[in-house]
Amino acid sequence: MKHYSSYWERSVLLRKFDFLILGAGIIGKQIALKIRKKNPNARIGIVDRSPISYGASTRNAGFACFGSVSEIVDDFKRSSQHEVMSLLNKRFQGIQQLVQTFGADQIGYRNTGSYEIYTDQEEYQDARNHFQTINQLIQDYTGQANAFQWQKSDKLQMACFEDCLFNPLEGMINSGMLNETISELTHKAGIIPLYGLNITSLNKDAGGYTLIADNDLSLSCSQLIIATNAFSSQLMPELDVVPARGQIILTKPIADLPFDGIFHNDKGYIYFRNIDDRVLLGGARNYFEAEETTYDFEGSSANFEHLKKYMQEIILPGRSFEIDMHWSGIMAMGEEKIPIVKKVDDHLTLCVRMSGMGVALGPVLSDEVAAFFD
Ligand SMILES: Cc1cc2nc3c(=O)[nH]c(=O)nc-3n(C[C@H](O)[C@H](O)[C@H](O)COP(=O)(O)OP(=O)(O)OC[C@H]3O[C@@H](n4cnc5c(N)ncnc54)[C@H](O)[C@@H]3O)c2cc1C
Fold it and tell me: Which CATH superfamily is domain 68-173+242-333 in?
């Protein structure tokens, strides 16, 4: 429906903003909060096409993690040691900040620890060969001498190798609670919600930017911060940002689950955890790369069946279960597994391409963005 502006809208409600943040996921909202802290009197708005955000933030697995050994070994094949360690440090610091800032109870954080289970001989051998080096490399950041520790996996009752790697520094959050807590804080901070607006173009003008929505409503601002993650290349096709769909299945409650924690397998491409006596399992997009490079939220039956088989054969062998839900979220990837955080010009800043790590990276990257305006 086309929007025809009134004088009251033009002169008051939609008058120029000092800061507009486009994208109300956990990254956009944390940026808004950090900017508010430094600019108590600024007129700040946050724009989204969806009433509750619709991308990755409300649709992920709720892991508070900074990387399993096989994921880190895999990252070393693509990026320098310095880059991998710098990212790992930001993820680790980010998790601490999430808990300190928002409160463990408010975001459903539990420090359960994580397990990397093994189902592939080569991956297991790689982990055996590299875990000590990785322990030494991350000690400076975590302060823990042996973050990754070998444990027997028999208590988990899964169909995996008899040794797994336990990391006591990782844990789980409740993604619904994290999003709700951050949203409430943005309301309290007087950030103006501008939801239900699908922005189709950005126009630069003398003193800032104007955003045009598909209903013709326009919003102008002095400073525009783009936090649309996977969807950023729809507005700025020159960006190296491609969508990566992550599918999740959730069982109905199961009595006496023999494990409590977050679990990694297959270089981080498989992830699962318990939640409310259920098992939540996601991933396997590496087996369906072409299909999963999409903005489409409707999951596919091939990935669904793959996850269901994994649930039965690896996580719950010999147990019966029913699938209650199947959903997906859209992550942002690119050539490099590094987020894009930069000032494009005097009025435009980007904080996009979270590469599937935005839960952990959000606190530190939002600090980086806010620092552009010191
Ligand atoms: C299945 C899955 C598992 C994950 N696991 C982990 C994990 O273990 N650890 C971790 O740290 N992270 C994980 N992530 C990634 C994490 O959820 C994301 O990195 C993070 O949520 C990104 O937040 P964001 O705010 O940048 O983007 P999003 O949450 O995608 O928000 C972007 C917002 O922009 C809005 N938008 C886009 N285009 C427009 C437009 N044109 N006009 C108006 N609004 C627009 C969208 O509606 C959306 O609300 C996972 C993600 C998924 C999907």
Answer: D-Amino Acid Oxidase, subunit A, domain 2 (3.30.9.10)
Residues 234 and 231: their CA atoms lie apart, in Å, by: 5
Give the Cα separation of 147 and 92 in Å (integer).
Answer: 12
- Among protein residues, the one with the nearest Cα to ligand 1's atom 44 is 48
The structure's pTM equals 0.97
Q: Hey, which residues does 7 pair with through a beta bridge?
A: none
Which residue in 83, 106, 109 sits closest to 96, CA to CA? Answer: 109
**Separation of CA 16 and ligand 1 centre (Å):** 27
| CA neighbor of 367 nearest in space, from 70, 96, 77, 54 | 96
Output the CA 156–ligand 1 centroid distance in Å: 31
* Tokens, residue 100: 């300190």
Q: Which of 6, 7, 4, 13 is nearest to 219 (CA)?
A: 13
Could you give the CA distance from residue 199 to residue 235 in angstroms, rounded to a whole number?
Answer: 8
CA 214 to chain centre: 27
Fold of 7-58+177-240+336-371: FAD/NAD(P)-binding domain (3.50.50)
229 CA to middle of ligand 1, Å? Answer: 6
Q: What is the pLDDT of residues 213-261, one digit of tens each?
A: 999 999 999 999 999 999 999 999 999 999 999 999 999 999 999 999 9
Ligand 1 pocket member 186 (CB < 6 A): no
